[in-house]
């Protein structure tokens, strides 16, 4: 990963300063930090608390409430498998088992080569064309186990992106 | 003359490769020296035909689908650009496709027809007529129009929209807010997403009208983070609407103000509940608030706030442009207007179906849906999201309206219809309902937080054939405790799908445990 993804207190402060004037700024700030660094670093918590006049416990409480925010760095790609009912009806349970086996990880874990972090998601709004998954910001439909394998191969053979 | 070809770019079309189809079309056309203007429209909502490519012809738009990139050369060979029907994927005139022709599209009249971000397209298809009308009317007058339309909230609770607006209008305050609930968390629903991705100005217009009606100058769209494309489209549409004077400090030169901003949720189903949503918008954990006070009186930052679902707000431009009666003329009983049904799950022809209230599930699932995708027998259907009942065949013929469904303990909810074939294990579905509640509970009430955890364990024991009768009795008691002792519908309604599975599909709870089956 290139340097711009590595967080510094200054970079965190810059994200906060750009948004802290907004009413209810904490969620937009957390999104901005996670979008930029891939996760919300522990070290960002006191900076947010200080800047927003909240306690660290309050900020921690918010981060842990929401499934979307993570506090450790993800792999190069985040892959979410939809676990909700409409996808269940067309084989999401089998897909989920296949995904875990193929990647050798459970939910919230990252493959040893740090290529892929596996996450669960409850509906991607693609319910007429399931099973659905999300890879980073892209949603894909009608994912069979074979299509899943092709996708994983595709993600792994891509040259390491230079971000920044 | 250059032929216009449409390739949709909503999430579903993209999820099935629409970008690759668009690229292939451009490349092939270039190689063949054909002139073609590619338009990236929204989706018509015919999900099973996506990617649905359309070609403009003198007779109207002609459809082909579902198109894979590898189909493109043969489609061009057989006369795609002339709208020929010489290819197996040819569907004829789009508007004559029975699935679409049989619908009553009031809210979704424009989706798929236009380029979602083009204000010119929006204006050419009746856009902003409702707002222009609202700008000439008194706030009370706008509220009366919405009341007369009979519009009830499409987010699930079906509360009359006009009455909610009246409360906000009648509550004096230095600042009021319009909050759009775009959390669309129910599995099987995607109508909000389609509205936002395919016709974003309609929602912007509806929210601006709501602002004029109640005296609110700031709006927020609380959008789930699972919808990255909707975020992009809405942000772009808001910027363009501001530039064109449909949002901002001086709406169309009237001196009236309405600002709008999109805020992202963060993967919490409970934040679709309106008070949890308001907490989240304030930057807090999404804990459900006690009511009263109603959000209409003390809502966002303690100020009077209209919280409405995307589709409730999206219905308003039509009502203001065409009049309350044009809307109220559709529907049955106390359910007026149209309902956006979303046919999902194990279905051959899934998609968006906008119809007046009163149709039946059988019509939807068989006539529109064509049965299951797997070709197996249909066994159960969950209507209204994860907190609503599973319905067996004996309940597929009642008319879809709020009152009829409520009478049998079912819900219309946000209009999601999720179909299951006969391979479904309803005990497993019941277990998932409890598991989902456990994962998504805000944690405020013990019956919801602990009850759902116990629920999963008890169902596991039943499925493993341990003390089955005692555990079935325990599950019944647990459901009652959750129903009676929960602050909101998360804990209070999770028992509905569980109990419906128990009641209508008891055999699934009586199976021999895994491994013991002979
Ligand atoms: C657990 C739970 C989840 C909900 N999720 C949504 C949702 O995703 N979208 C929505 O519009 N309403 C949702 N609601 C309903 C809202 O609380 C509220 O009734 C609605 O936003 C009001 O708008 P309406 O009158 O236009 O329907 C949910 C309610 C509960 C209890
Ligand atoms: S019922 Fe569940 S989700 Fe609702 S307020 Fe109580 S704990 Fe929170
Ligand atoms: S249930 Fe999987 S996309 Fe909606
Ligand atoms: S609020 Fe305390 S148990 Fe529900």
From TrEMBL, chain A:
What Gene Ontology molecular function terms does this protein carry?
Answer: 2 iron, 2 sulfur cluster binding; metal ion binding; oxidoreductase activity
**Record-listed [2Fe-2S] cluster binding positions:** 82, 87, 123, 127
- What keywords are assigned to this protein? 2Fe-2S, Iron, Iron-sulfur, Metal-binding
Cofactor binding note: Binds 1 [2Fe-2S] cluster.
| SUPFAM superfamilies noted in UniProt | Thioredoxin-like
Tell me the cofactors it needs: [2Fe-2S] cluster
User: Which NCBIfam families does the annotation name?
Assistant: PRK05988.1
Its family? Belongs to the complex I 24 kDa subunit family.
Name used for this protein in its record: NADH-quinone oxidoreductase subunit E
The major lineage groups are:
Bacteria, Pseudomonadati, Pseudomonadota, Gammaproteobacteria, Oceanospirillales
TrEMBL record, chain B:
SMART domains attached here? NADH_4Fe-4S (SM00928)
Q: Name one GO molecular function term.
A: metal ion binding
Q: Which Pfam families match?
A: Complex1_51K, NADH_4Fe-4S
The leader peptide range reads none
Which prosthetic group or cofactor does it need? FMN; [4Fe-4S] cluster
Record-linked PROSITE patterns:
COMPLEX1_51K_1, COMPLEX1_51K_2
- Family the entry assigns: Belongs to the complex I 51 kDa subunit family.
- Name this polypeptide is given: NADH-quinone oxidoreductase subunit F
Species for this entry: Onishia taeanensis
């Amino acid at each position: 990963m290139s340097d711009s993804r590595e967080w510094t207190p200054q970079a965190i402060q810059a994200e906060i300063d750009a948004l802290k004037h907004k009413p209810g700024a904490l969620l937009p700030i957390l999104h901005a930090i996670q979008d930029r660094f891939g996760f919300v670093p522990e070290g960002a918590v006191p900076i947010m608390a200080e800047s927003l006049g909240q306690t660290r416990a309050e900020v921690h409480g918010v981060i842990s409430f929401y499934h979307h925010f993570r506090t450790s760095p993800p792999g190069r790609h985040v892959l979410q498998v939809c676990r909700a009912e409409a996808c269940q009806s067309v084989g999401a349970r089998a897909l989920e088992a296949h995904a875990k086996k193929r990647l050798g990880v459970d939910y919230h874990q990252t493959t040893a080569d740090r290529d892929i972090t596996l996450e669960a998601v409850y509906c991607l709004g693609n319910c007429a064309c399931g099973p659905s998954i999300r890879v980073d910001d892209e949603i894909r439909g009608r994912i069979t186990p074979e299509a899943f394998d092709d996708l994983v191969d595709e993600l792994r053979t891509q040259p390491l992106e230079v971000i920044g | 003359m250059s032929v216009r070809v449409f390739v949709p770019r909503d999430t579903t079309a993209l999820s099935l490769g629409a970008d690759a189809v668009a690229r292939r079309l451009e490349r092939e056309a270039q190689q063949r020296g054909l002139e073609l203007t590619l338009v990236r429209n929204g989706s018509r909502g015919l999900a099973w035909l996506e990617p649905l490519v359309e070609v403009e012809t003198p007779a109207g738009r002609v459809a082909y689908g579902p198109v894979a990139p590898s189909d493109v050369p043969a489609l061009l060979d057989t006369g795609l650009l002339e709208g020929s029907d010489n290819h197996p994927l040819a569907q004829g005139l789009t508007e004559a496709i029975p699935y679409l022709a049989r619908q009553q599209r009031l809210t979704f009249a424009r989706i798929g027809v236009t380029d979602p971000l083009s204000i010119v397209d929006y204006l050419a298809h009746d856009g902003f007529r409702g707002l222009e009308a609202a700008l000439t009317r008194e706030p009370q007058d706008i509220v009366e129009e919405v009341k007369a339309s009979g519009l009830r909230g499409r987010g699930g609770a079906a509360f009359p929209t006009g009455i909610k607006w009246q409360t906000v209008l009648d509550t004096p305050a230095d600042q009021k807010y319009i909050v759009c609930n775009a959390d669309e968390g129910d599995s099987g629903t995607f109508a909000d997403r389609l509205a936002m991705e395919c016709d974003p100005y309609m929602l912007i217009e509806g929210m601006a009208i709501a602002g004029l009606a109640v005296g609110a100058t700031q709006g927020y769209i609380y959008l789930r983070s699972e919808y990255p494309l909707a975020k992009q489209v809405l942000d772009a549409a808001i910027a363009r609407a501001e530039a064109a004077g449909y949002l901002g400090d001086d709406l169309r030169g009237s001196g009236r103000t309405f600002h709008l901003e999109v805020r992202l949720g963060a993967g919490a189903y409970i934040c679709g509940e309106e008070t949890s949503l308001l907490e989240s918008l304030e930057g807090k954990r999404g804990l459900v608030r006690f009511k009263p006070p109603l959000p209409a009186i003390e809502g966002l930052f303690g100020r009077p706030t209209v919280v409405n679902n995307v589709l409730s707000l999206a219905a308003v431009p039509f009502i203001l442009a065409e009049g309350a009666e044009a809307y109220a003329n559709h529907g049955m009983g106390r359910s007026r207007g149209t309902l956006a049904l979303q046919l999902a799950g194990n279905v051959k022809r899934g998609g968006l179906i906008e119809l007046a209230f009163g149709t039946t599930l059988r019509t939807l699932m068989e006539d529109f849906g064509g049965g299951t995708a797997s070709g197996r027998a249909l066994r159960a259907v969950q209507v209204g999201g994860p907190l609503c009942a599973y319905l067996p065949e004996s309940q597929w013929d009642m008319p879809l309206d709020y009152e009829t469904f409520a009478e049998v303990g079912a819900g219309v909810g946000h209009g999601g219809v999720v179909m299951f074939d006969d391979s479904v294990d309803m005990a497993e579905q019941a277990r998932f309902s409890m598991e989902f509640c456990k994962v998504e509970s805000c944690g405020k009430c013990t019956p919801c937080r602990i009850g759902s955890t116990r629920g999963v364990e008890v169902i596991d024991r039943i499925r493993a054939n341990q003390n089955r009768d005692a555990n079935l009795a325990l599950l019944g008691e647990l459901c009652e405790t959750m129903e009676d002792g929960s602050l909101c519908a998360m804990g209070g309604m999770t028992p509905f799908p569980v109990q419906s599975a128990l009641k209508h599909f008891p055999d699934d709870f009586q199976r021999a445990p895994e491994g013991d089956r002979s």
